[in-house]
UniProtKB/TrEMBL annotation:
<keyword id="KW-0378">Hydrolase</keyword>
<comment type="similarity">
    <text>Belongs to the ADAT1 family.</text>
</comment>
<keyword id="KW-0479">Metal-binding</keyword>
<keyword id="KW-0819">tRNA processing</keyword>
<dbReference type="InterPro" id="IPR002466">
    <property type="entry name" value="A_deamin"/>
</dbReference>
<feature type="domain" description="A to I editase">
    <location>
        <begin position="49"/>
        <end position="186"/>
    </location>
</feature>
<protein>
    <recommendedName>
        <fullName>tRNA-specific adenosine deaminase 1</fullName>
        <ecNumber>3.5.4.34</ecNumber>
    </recommendedName>
</protein>
<keyword id="KW-0862">Zinc</keyword>
<dbReference type="GO" id="GO:0003723">
    <property type="term" value="F:RNA binding"/>
</dbReference>
<dbReference type="Pfam" id="PF02137">
    <property type="entry name" value="A_deamin"/>
</dbReference>
<dbReference type="GO" id="GO:0043829">
    <property type="term" value="F:tRNA-specific adenosine-37 deaminase activity"/>
</dbReference>
<comment type="function">
    <text>Specifically deaminates adenosine-37 to inosine in tRNA-Ala.</text>
</comment>
<dbReference type="GO" id="GO:0008033">
    <property type="term" value="P:tRNA processing"/>
</dbReference>
<dbReference type="GO" id="GO:0046872">
    <property type="term" value="F:metal ion binding"/>
</dbReference>
Length: 186
């Protein structure tokens, strides 16, 4: 894959994020992961959806000891993409000739090599989420990305409208060699 292609997808995603203004973005002492799905059609590129990861304690959850609502950027981006698909499929749009590219600003959770210091006995299906010491039996983002790329991004209910699974042409990950997560101030 051409480095300029990768940089174009990354820059398109980052520029779209920057264009959204400051509301809801992390402050100078916070960080997040950015994820986007870019559609390529007839040599034209469009950011279909964009999401950042969230972590918060809110409402009824606050009464639970240390309960954290934690949604990773990849999952939120997929949800946004399904909304994008619904609105376009209802208007008769077809994506038969489109290619789909995923951009993630850092390695997704579940990449064992990055977190090998935190894993004493790695095994399939049991991953540690970033920054956590406890094992998590839930699928990591890497597991989910693999599943989505086999079964399709559209999900089971939308498959009747898309006629075939929507899979990634490319997956582009930024900051692979760095421990710093995406920070809008860098």
């Amino acid at each position: 894959m051409c480095e300029s292609f990768v940089n174009n997808i990354a820059n398109l995603s980052l520029n779209t994020y920057e264009s959204l203004g400051k509301t809801g973005k992390p402050t100078a002492d916070e960080w997040t992961t950015l994820c986007s799905i870019v559609i390529e059609e007839n040599n034209t590129f469009l950011v279909a959806c964009l999401a950042t990861g969230t972590k918060c304690v809110t409402g009824q959850w606050a009464s639970f000891k240390g309960a954290v609502i934690d949604c990773h950027a990849e999952c939120l981006c997929k949800r946004a993409f399904k909304r994008f698909l619904i609105s376009h499929v209802q208007s008769g749009k077809s994506f038969d000739t489109a290619k789909f590219h995923l951009f993630i600003s850092q390695l997704p959770c579940g990449v064992v090599d990055r977190y090998k210091g935190n894993i004493d006995k790695p095994c399939v299906g049991v991953r540690r989420k970033p920054g956590k010491g406890e094992r998590c039996l839930k699928p990591s983002c890497v597991d989910k990305l693999c599943k989505w790329n086999i079964l399709g991004l559209q999900g089971r209910r939308l498959l009747a409208f898309t006629k075939k699974p929507i899979r990634f042409e490319t997956i582009i990950i930024g900051n692979c060699g760095q421990e710093n997560e995406f920070d809008e101030n860098k």
